[in-house]
Every structure is written in structure tokens, then in C-alpha cells.
Amino acid sequence: MALPVVDFSSWYDIDDEASRKGVARELVDACQRVGFVRIMNHSLPEANLNKAFEWMKQLFALPEEEKMKAPHPEGWAVHRGYSWPGLEKISQIMSTGDDEEARMKLREVPDVKEVYDIGSENNTHEPNQWLPDATLPGFREFMIQFYSDCDHVGNDILRALAVGLKLEDTEYLTRKHSGDSHQLRLLHYLPVPADDLEQDRISRCAAHTDWSSITLLFQDDCGGLEVEDISRPGTFVPAPPVKNSIIMNVGDLLQRWTNDRLRSTNHRVGLPELSDRFEGPNRMTRERYSIPFFMSPDDDVVVECIPSCMSDREPAKYEPITRGDYNKMRMAMMY
Questions:
Q1: In 3D, which of 164, 143, 83 has the Cα closest to residue 116?
Q2: Quick one: average pLDDT of 276-295?
Q3: What pLDDT is stored for residue 199 in this prediction?
Q4: Which is the most buried residue in 42, 224, 276, 307, by most CB within 10 A?
């Protein structure tokens, strides 16, 4: 299974409606078949991406006591600030009934990554946890602007999805995504012995789906992202990094919205693909940096089947739910 590629350059030609519709069709087709797509020639400048990774490296190179000046708050209600290795555990298993034992077993395998989460400055329910300006001067200002840049690119993609789904209102999705409920995540995967990953003694990021509408992912050159092959459940294939591209994937909320027409596909982070990405006698993995930008609707938005995605023969499969209620259910599984 190869990751579909969509060249987004024609989308920005507002005078060529046929080409724009072609981009939208390709995007929706990729989201139906795979749930993941590599987007090339998007509008986010390469210089901005390079700066984002430079800031990340400065952030995670800080001493632990400095990073802990912006700690992730206790519990799951506020998802902001610095999370130290092992705090978060991705799990697809609900915390009820007979699944509790399996859920606890998964938690015994620690995730070896550190995280810094950023949201909208307008989100008073989940206020940002910023480092003191003296600790990393300029970091806060850059990340606020980068959040806005990602939101702009994401809105282009939401509009293209609306066209590809044949919605008369091309702003149907963007109107439900003000930008205040998105999440910018800075991820640093620590170097670890490859054998520990291969023997499941530790994990980088276990298989999961995202619970956003869509996710935009920016990667460094290390690799490790793997996507489940829908035609072969349980088989994961590499999604290698390509400079200045966006890997976009469908989240669970958009799958609900589209009545399972668009796929929210399992993915994980494992070993880098190539053997030369290991270093030293213990086959230490290279450290890895990545930036996912999770786009979600506002808390009070009701997620219910898009009219063009249902019919008398294919009625809505899911009950309506607000993004806020869905978010609480998913976040409670992580801590």
C-alpha cells in the first residue's frame, strides 16, 4: 500500500474551477481508500516549517527543571504544556467492563516520548501553559503565529473536502472549526535501543486513531510513522518523510460526520524504516521530532451525519454527539 499523493497547487487557482474540483476529488478518494494522504505544494512556507523544528529542538534540549516550569496539568481535562516521558499512554481500549485488564496491561509498556501541547489563546477552558519568556525568548510568539499558519492551511483542506463531498456550502466544515479547539503538538521521541522496541518492552506510540476531524502531520527526516493497510488488518506499512510535505489523515469525528465514508485509520510510530537510522552497538534509534496539528470543531458543535453521506438505503450509523462530550470520553482513556 502506497500513501496517496495529492498536489494541492491547483487548489489555489481560484479561476480554474475544474482543476480545484479535481484536487477535491483526489483528496476525498484518498480519504476513502486509505484515510491518509500526502499533500504536496500546500501554502505553508518551508521557512516557517524549518523554524518550527528549530524551536522544538531548543525546547526539548532545555534542562528538565526548565521544561517543568510549564507542566501538563494533572488529569485529562486540560491538555496543555509539557508532558514528560511516560505520562501519556495512547490506548484505543475503552476504560469500562472486561476491557479494563487489557487496558492496564497496555499501560505497563511505557511510551518513550516527551510532548509540549499548545492550543488557541482564545480557549479559556484549556489555557496554554507557557514557559517563562526568559526561559526561551521568542518561543511563545512564534508558536502562536505557527498555530495560525497551520489553521489557515487546514481550512484550505476542509474546504476541499467539502467540495469533494459535494456539499453545496463549501464553508460547511470551516464554520464548525473556529480554530479555538485545535491542538498543536510538539513531539520528541527519545533515542532507545531498537531491541526494546522490537520486544515490546517500550513503545514510541502505540496503534491508534485520532479523535479529531483531521490531523496535519509534519515530520523530520527520521521516519517511523506506520499506517495500517486496510486490506490487510494488523499489517502496518511505513509512511516515510518527504521534505515540506503534509501527511493529512482523517480523524474519528470526520468518520462519524461522513457516515464511515471517509476512514479514520490506525497508525503508530515504531522503528525507523532503514537500518542506517540506528546508531552504536545497541542499535540505538535516532531521536525523532514531529508536529501533528489536530483540527477539531468547537465544543458545542453537534457532529451528525452530513446529508450527502446518507440515503434511504444507507441511513446514519451514529447518534449525534457534541464534540465536547466526545472529547471527554476519549481524553479520559489517556491518563
A1: 83
A2: 84
A3: 77
A4: 224
Strand residue runs (E) in 256-318: 267-269, 278-279, 284-285, 288-295, 302-303
How do strand 5-7 and strand 36-40 relate by DSSP bridges? parallel
Residue 311: φ, ψ to 5°: -155, 180
Taking the C-alpha atoms of residue 240 and residue 224, their distance in angstroms, rounded to an integer, is: 7
Q: Is the per-residue pLDDT at 268 higher than 60?
A: yes
Pair 25, 164: CB distance under 8 Å: yes
Q: pLDDT tens digits, residue range 5-44?
A: 999 999 999 889 999 999 999 999 999 999 999 999 999 9
- Cβ count within 10 A of residue 124: 8
CA distance 215 to 35: 11
194 vs 47, more confident: 47
Alpha helix positions (H), 7-138 = 17-33, 46-60, 64-67, 99-107
Judging by beta carbons within 10 Å of its beta carbon (0-12, 13-18, 19+), is residue 219 exposed, middle or buried?
buried
Place of cell 515540506: 244
Cα separation, 221 vs 268, in Å, equals 17
CB 215 within 8 A of CB 294: yes
pLDDT band (50, 70, 90) for residue 275 = low
Angle formed by the axes of helices 17-33 and 139-164, to 10°? 100
Reported confidence tier of residue 332, pLDDT bands at 50, 70, 90: low
